Amino acid sequence: MSKFKLKKSTHTPEVSTASLPDIVFMLLFFFMTVTVMKDDTLKVVNELPNATEIKKLEKKNRIITIYIGKPVKKFEESQGNQLKIQMDDRFVNLADLGSKVLEAINERPEYIRGFITISLKVDKKASMGLIDDVKEELRKINALKINYTTYEGDTYKNLE
């Protein structure tokens, strides 16, 4: 039998932090690649109506969004409280709408231009008069593919 006994250490080994910076940077790069920035800052009231038959538009690079509604309180003093058209974070006059939409179409790659959809996000309390005028301006520039953005839900809620 042996005379020597091994002493058991009661001290636990320290956790290695050598890989901690790698993990932090890996998480940072992950969140940087999957985060989507908000496109537009709304300057008009935009409570969308409900609809039952809806379809999601898949390719966001083929969509030009036009908002129609009354200005939010922040812009009421400078813009009034009549219905306004907003496109790309700025108000657009009805007469300038066609040229602004053409500019937005020409900013897109050439292979996409034929597939551009104009998405109208119209406040449910907006009158049809301005919407008809917007559609007429879009017809003049041959932008005929129009989508109305809605929420999925009971259409009777639109009457409230």
UniProtKB/TrEMBL annotation:
Transmembrane helix in keyword set: yes
Keyword Cell membrane: yes
Membrane topology term: Single-pass membrane protein; Single-pass type II membrane protein
Transmembrane segments: 20-37
A single BP term in Gene Ontology: protein transport
Domain of life of the source: Bacteria
GO molecular function, one term: transmembrane transporter activity
Major localization listed first in the record, in broad terms: membrane
Cellular localization per UniProt: Cell membrane
UniProt keyword terms in alphabetical order: Cell membrane, Membrane, Protein transport, Transmembrane, Transmembrane helix, Transport
Gene Ontology cellular-component annotations: plasma membrane
Entries under Pfam families matching the protein: ExbD (PF02472)
Family the UniProt entry places it in: Belongs to the ExbD/TolR family.
Name this protein carries in UniProt: Biopolymer transporter ExbD
